[in-house]
Amino acid sequence: MSDGTPPQVPAVVELLSDGRPVPLWAQTLIEVLARRVVVRAPVDRPPRPAARLATSPGAADLPLALADQGVPVAVLAAGPTDAALPQVRRATVLVVTGTSTGSTPSPTGGPVILTVHPDAVDAAAHPPVPPFVRERIRRAHGLPERLLVRIGYPGATPVPGRLVPTALACASAAAVRGPAVSLALALGTPVVTDAATAGRLGARDGVHLLVRPDDGVEAALTGLAADPELTAVCSGHARSLVRRVLDLDRAAAALLDACGIPAPRPPHHPLAGLEAALTALDTPPGAAPRMRALATAATLCDPRPPVELTGVRW
Amino acid sequence: MDVCVCGAQVPFVRGGAEQHMENLVTAVREAGHRAELVRLPTAWDRTRVFDAALAWRMVPLDADVVIATNFPSYFVRHPRKVVWLFHQHRPFYDAAGTAWSDIADDDESREAQRLLATWDRVALGEAMRLFSTSGVVASRLLHTTGLVAEPLAHPPPLHERLHPGPFGDEVFCATRLEANKRPELMVDAFAHVRAPVHLTIAGRGSLAASLTERITAAGLADRVTLTGHVDDTELVERFARALAVLYVPHDEDYGYVTLQAFRAGKPVITSADAGGVLEWVTDGVTGLVTDGTPAGIAEAVDRLAADRDLARKLGEAGAERVAELSWAPVVERLLAP
Hints:
The complex is a heterodimer. By secondary structure, chain A is α/β, with parallel strands linked by helices. Chain A folds into two domains: 12-118 and 248-298, no CATH class; 123-245, 3-Layer(aba) Sandwich (Rossmann fold). Chain A has helices spanning 24-33, 62-67, 86-89, 131-140, 164-170, 180-186, 195-201, 217-225, 228-245, 248-258, 270-280, 288-298; strands at 12-16, 38-40, 51-54, 73-76, 93-97, 102-104, 112-116, 148-151, 173-176, 191-193, 210-211, 308-309, 312-313. In chain A, α1 packs across α10 and α11 runs antiparallel to α12. Chain B is α/β, with parallel strands linked by helices. Chain B has a six-stranded parallel sheet with strand order 2-1-3-4-5-6, sandwiched between helices. The mean pLDDT of chain B is 95. Chain B folds into two domains: 2-152, Rossmann fold (3-Layer(aba) Sandwich); 170-322, 3-Layer(aba) Sandwich (Rossmann fold), CATH 3.40.50. The longest helix of chain B has 19 residues, at 107-125. Chain B has helices at 16-30, 49-58, 107-125, 135-145, 183-190, 208-217, 232-241, 256-263, 294-306, 308-322, 327-334; strands at residues 2-9, 34-41, 65-68, 81-85, 129-132, 150-151, 170-174, 198-202, 224-228, 244-246, 268-271, 287-290. At the A-B interface, α4, α9, α11 and α12 of A face α2, α3 and α4 of B.
């Protein structure tokens, strides 16, 4: 569907790999990047890439890419010490994991260091489900009125990996440890976890989730599920925390910014404000209000048929 | 200061919310500020309900402060946004599944609810201050979004003109004739009332025709009157002459009728599920709280008809309860730096 405005040529980011699997956070970061730009393997055809992203300092084509002066290069690294590697020093951005989020210039004049939380998630792909909607979902699907989910705790019935998001989206409350915690927080699940996990995520007891030692988890879980006010408060705060510090979309935006790739629509574009407003309201891609907004904008377009101009439809 | 009061507009509909906004503008002006009421048309159906919210999001408002009131006006953006929440979009929340909601038990409905709750949390959460009209509204907000609002009570329309009067034989109610106000319950109750008293319901609404039929079918034409719209002078006089005020809405947000009755020194007969009304009506103190059945309501009417001293005592306690309400402290709280 056209939004009634001249289409833009999407920026292209080429992916350089050493053939080894990338960690989950990096894999998801690339998926999130693909919502903003075209991510493709290196190919010898136009358009010329706006940036190159090496999935490790050992990526085979990295030296060649660094020699191509006009195209910024970002490197996903195992840690900040990789910044000292000769092939990384000439990169534009070094993406590392750490508990703080954001980009900082390298003190030694090397690449900009972009820190991504290792537990960061794709928040847009996991929209929040407030407790009162969970209740309606459970009722509609014949699930128990109080559905308590346990993930990563000894003795818990294992939840198959592919069902983890569903279980967390339906749960009245969940005791969670491990990588699923940030997913649970993104989904607005009322969570009980341990102090180490909460600390790593910057989550506070009684605000974003409940922190309990192992022997207090069951009681906390039951109590939390029975407390509609606390579940609503924790659910909302948990989602806010994820959007603020654990959202890979922020990392993707920062990465593109550091590579000098502009946002898909410039700030003065008529749809930029609408899109920004929808995003600020935590509206997922493809949600009905986004489609209605775009359709409305399309009604304002010039009805003349588009003209092909230098390969781009204007 | 330049203050924009923001509110939803449903063309050709006028009720408590509209009076509330207008009275707030007047009160802000009386406090020495410039104030304007800004309204945008709103549709309540599930498909279009997000449109007006998004429109508010894009409205450029140049003012020192904006005070947003009901859904979806609180989606307005401003660095100094104060929300005085009349109500959220209840058909998506506590009223889902009722006759006045188009939210059904399907995936599309649940997704719409999920999305609106998410939007509400963002839009309301960004307010510099968050007030609600009543504890009931604050409680609903807390349960659905986890946000905390401070209840801020205000005087009802005509509060300066309402006055006590003789306890006559008329049980009175001024309300919109809509499903959530349950006017049919009042009519049904009067089929059980034994005392020689009359029920008068003032107000317009979509249920007017069906209520008229109901009254006729029940043989109550000589005991129940629907006046339609009455002007302010008549309204004040009807409150003043009433034996009691009958008001049995379902889970009301605030309920001006209650406060107007108290200003006129009249007791209020209500039901245990009337929501915000119960923040003012205490059973046996400022009125009678019934079980909400026609028979239960009728019993309360008969009791007051038989004991005018009790009616007076309850009415006086109600008057005392609202005596301190005024606009000046409300405006002060809303515009506090």
